[in-house]
Design a protein that fits this description.
The chain contains 7 helices and no strands. It is mostly helical.
């Protein structure tokens, strides 16, 4: 448990260092309409290499919608437990913690739309001006939802083969989003790195919280063989 929280602190520190570098080093007006971008040389080199790929943009958009549907499934599970058990305290703690995680993701999504570190390398269709780009909140959304889903599969899916297939799908969705978002050209390299670091921080915190709850449940259980309540 402590290892998970330490890892969260480490990835969070790396994220802060990245933000500091973006705001203070190699800042140049390489973005659309002369927007100033940090770590401009490496960002521009990677962007020029991949260019803009609308197909991958659409693919990653669809993956994002699929991830949101997965999140809604867990929200429905929580609501069903609330109706059946008639108390929010009796909802699975892992589901309650997941709800908190989702709220944090939504809060961060809004926060980085207001607090702008970097702007997108392109003006998106339908927009009249550049919009916020760092971190890639799309990457954060998919990584956090699918990463946390993979953590809960052992608890909610009994079949080992189905669990393995679903975990593979979660990993594939994360990988395709990370790579596809970069290839699509709607983000700088550092946007993707920021999204990964932010996602890792949140997932380490969630994993550590799950382990703490499991430990607390085991201590309160009357017998040593009892498992984490579900």
């Amino acid at each position: 448990m402590k290892t998970k929280f330490f890892a969260a602190g480490f990835t969070g520190l790396l994220l802060l260092i990245l933000v500091f570098l973006l705001l203070n080093f190699d800042v140049a007006p390489i973005g659309p309409e002369g927007t100033r971008i940090g770590l401009s040389h490496i960002n521009k080199s990677v962007f020029d290499f991949f260019g803009v790929n609308h197909v991958w943009y659409e693919i990653t958009e669809m993956i994002g919608y699929a991830a949101i549907l997965v999140a809604l499934v867990f929200v429905m599970i929580g609501c069903a437990q609330l109706v059946k058990r008639k108390s929010i305290k009796r909802i699975d703690k892992s589901i309650l913690a997941l709800g908190v995680l989702y709220l944090v993701v939504i809060g961060l999504y809004v926060f980085f739309e207001v607090v702008i570190v970097n702007y997108r390398p392109v003006i998106m269709p339908g927009d009249a001006q550049p919009e916020a780009s760092f971190p890639s909140t799309h990457t954060m959304l998919v990584c956090v939802i699918m990463g946390s889903t993979a953590m809960l599969l052992d608890k909610y899916v009994k079949s080992r083969n189905i669990r393995l297939a679903l975990k593979t799908l979660c990993a594939a969705m994360i990988l395709m989003t990370v790579c596809g978002r970069l290839i699509s050209g709607v983000h700088w390299l550092t946007d993707i790195l920021g999204g990964i670091l932010l996602s890792a921080t949140l997932l380490y915190l969630y994993s550590g919280a799950l382990e703490r709850m499991e430990g607390s449940a085991a201590e309160k259980a009357p017998g040593p063989a009892l498992r984490f309540p579900g």
